[in-house]
Amino acid sequence: MNTPGTVLAAGLLDEAVARLRKGELVAFPTETVYGLGGDATNARAVARIYQLKGRPSSHPLIVHLGSGDSLDRYARAVPAAARSLAAAFWPGPLTLVLPRGAHVVPEATGGQDTVALRMPDHPVAQALLGAFGGVLAAPSANRYGRISPTTAGHVRDEFGSDAPLVLDGGACRVGLESTIVGWVAGELTLLRPGQISVASIETVAGPVRRLPASAAPRVSGSDVSHYAPRTPARLVEPPALAADSSGVAVLARHRCPGDFAGVAWLLAPADAEDYARLLYTNLRRLDALSAREIRVEPVPDESAWDAVRDRLARATAGASSR
Question: Scanning 39, 158, 242, 287, which has its CA 20 to 30 A from the CA of 17?
Fold first, then answer.
């Protein structure tokens, strides 16, 4: 992983800050995925994020803080449990949805009266936020609904000649987006699973409830179809992974059981954390093969796999309609 010193030595950090202050965009690494960042207090910069991603303006962004001390500046009201969670997990992959403070432009919240806030745990992200001296609205640095980027190369591949300045911080160590929690009718509620588990959150802040998607507020990455490759992808149980195999690409947790013509078989890690870290890279590798279909072996129905199951369910949700 590159250090902030590497970015400073190359002069890129100063250039990135200058661009952000002019309302332009910069892609930067976090511990989860690469973000497409713009000044969260600048409505035109936020509009550029939506435009470049092709993201609906009703889909809220996550605002990245350089310090937990600024929480009260960007949230209008902060429950005691939110402060406890920030103290326990920031910097880190936990996003808190709170009433929006006046310093965040409403365009960043998708029209809702809440704002999603987190403090990233990556030296390059922290250096950028520190040098900028403000807050960055930063969804994943990819086209809307597509596979999130976990390397600088993914960002450049995604946007081509439209790519903004990209700060290269190496491969993301978590690889999946942050856990999101909020307070719905006064109750702490899971809005998106991530590396930080419900059990870990409950240890700090008490019971966490789950809501059906129809009853939950809008948050980043909550569309039924999301994180998706361009190649139709679906979940397939192991016995059928290689059936009718011509032109098929497979992501599985066990080795290919035989020599199947026309099958590109990619072996994924057996461990949940390693699987998550490499999931988007693996999906991009398979998507690049131009197969007729990507088949993904379902992962275990265990709490350690909650975030992976969520992303796979969304990545494969649109296959039947393509």
Answer: 158
Pairing label, strands 114-118, 62-64: parallel
Q: How many Å apart are CA 249 and CA 241, to the nearest integer? A: 9
Find residue 193's DSSP bridge partners. Answer: none
Residue 259: CB atoms within 10 Å: 7
**Residue 153, CA atoms < 13 Å, CB-side half-sphere:** 6
Give 112-126 pLDDT, tens digit per residue: 999 999 999 999 999
Containing H/E element for 310?
Answer: helix 306-315
3-state DSSP percent of the chain in helix, strand and coil, to 5: 35, 20, 45
Using a cut of 0.90, tell me whether the model's pTM lies above it: yes
**Which residue ranges in the chain fall short of pLDDT 50?**
1-9, 320-322
Q: Are 179 and 190 in contact (CB under 8 A)?
A: yes
Q: Can you tell me whether residue 153 is helix, strand or coil?
A: helix
Q: Output the CATH code of domain 233-321.
A: 3.40.50
Ordered by start, the domain boundaries in the chain are 4-215, 233-321
